[in-house]
UniProtKB/TrEMBL annotation:
InterPro entries hit by this protein: NAD(P)-bd_dom_sf (IPR036291), SDR_fam (IPR002347)
Organism listed in the record: Nocardioides agariphilus
This protein's name: SDR family oxidoreductase
One Gene Ontology term of the molecular function aspect: oxidoreductase activity
PANTHER family from the UniProt entry: 5-KETO-D-GLUCONATE 5-REDUCTASE, ALCOHOL DEHYDROGENASE, PUTATIVE (AFU_ORTHOLOGUE AFUA_3G03445)-RELATED
Keywords: Oxidoreductase
Amino acid sequence: MTRPVAVIIAAGPGVSGSLARRMAREGYDLALVGHQEEALVELGGQLEKLGATVSHAVADVTDAAVATAAVRGLAHGHGRVDWLHFNPSAFRHKDPLSLTSAELLDDVGLGVGALLTALQAVHPLLQPGARVTATGSMAADSPWNEAASLGVQKAGLRNLIRSIDTTLEPQGIRAVSLTVRGTLGKEGPFTPDRVADAIWAAAHQDESEWRTEVPYTG
């Protein structure tokens, strides 16, 4: 039987790495997209030790043509996609009086727009029962004014996930974002492993009571 395949956008250490390891332990093969070769190779080695077949590509996901080619190439290499996870966001320490409109658009291009690129690249290979997930944040509801673009990204991401879920539900594909209501740390309820487990649970929620946003409070 063919193993399921997960594509992770902005793979590396942290939540995306923890989620990738959880997926590998659960029997997934992985296709990783990121911007640092060294981090991708290191994570790939960890996943292979867990029994996964792993491929990766270094790509700027804000460049639609480059990202499409990279994601599509990885997906076709595996022959199917059962899970797309979207992780990137841009942190820019600027308040509304210093943040320019061009900077805001650049950040939204990474934290929201790149999801469209990745989704459209993998869509032909998405299997019925597939999942689209995204790492959300409490910044969507409680933005910090000194990093104004982050709240806009996370609010936009959550909104887009809802539209994706509505669009793909007739195909048997569901989408959900996990709103992390806390600060990531090395200990306590907001470690990357704990957040990754919450994303896993959100992706496996009962479809009869499906929610496109699941809060994680630890």
